[in-house]
Amino acid sequence: MINRDTVAVAIIWIVVTAVVEIAFSFADIFPAAASEEAVIVDDAFNFLTYIAIPVFTFVLVALIYSIVRFRTRSSAVDGAPEDGPHVRTNHRWVWGWMVVTSALVVTVIIHPGLTGLNEVDELAQGDDLELVVEVSGIQWAWTFTYPDQNITGSELVLPLDAHVRFDITAVDVLHSFWIPAFRTKIDAVPGLTTQIHANITELGDYDDDINFRVQCAELCGRDHGIMQSQVRVVEREEFNEWVLAQQ
Ligand SMILES: [Cu+2]
Is residue 32 part of a domain? Predict the structure, then answer.
């Protein structure tokens, strides 16, 4: 059953997979990760990419090998090439493949999602909450209210190393609150308050890195794409000064 072509495909597959896995391990594909939540999300993404690469390379190698190795050599002048032998369904393979892949999906692929969500949840429930920011989305802008500091404006300034909770709602239609540098995102729904947390770990601002912005992530009309606000993560001292200056 194992012929030369199968062995050749297997060897090429292993080599190509190793090359792509190594290349991916060196590739810097993520934007700045500025919160503990972001690291959890990136870890899950990394893990899933590592196990997806062999699948991708297998399809690619088997396809290209077949195209090159089994292409017909007769030209149109010699007459139309004949069909190859009819391939019948191998029920044992089909069922085996379904059982194996289903088991892998359930036990492996779902794992980082479940455990990661749990970790993000634990971070949210930590008793170190320091700052609450109320966020309101309207076509096509965000408004930020700091209830404890008595500040309302269109600028989102956050202190470094703080656990922040965002209480999010919308005035008119569905929007979605997303800060790419923090990764997590949640819908902004009229008449409802949704919550999302960030445990901030890195300084940054929009002028240096566009991932420090609030971006609407739910199609909400004409200017949805530019429904964004600049985010600035500053040292605690600078944050306190900013609060005083706003009041
Ligand atoms: Cu939008």
Answer: yes
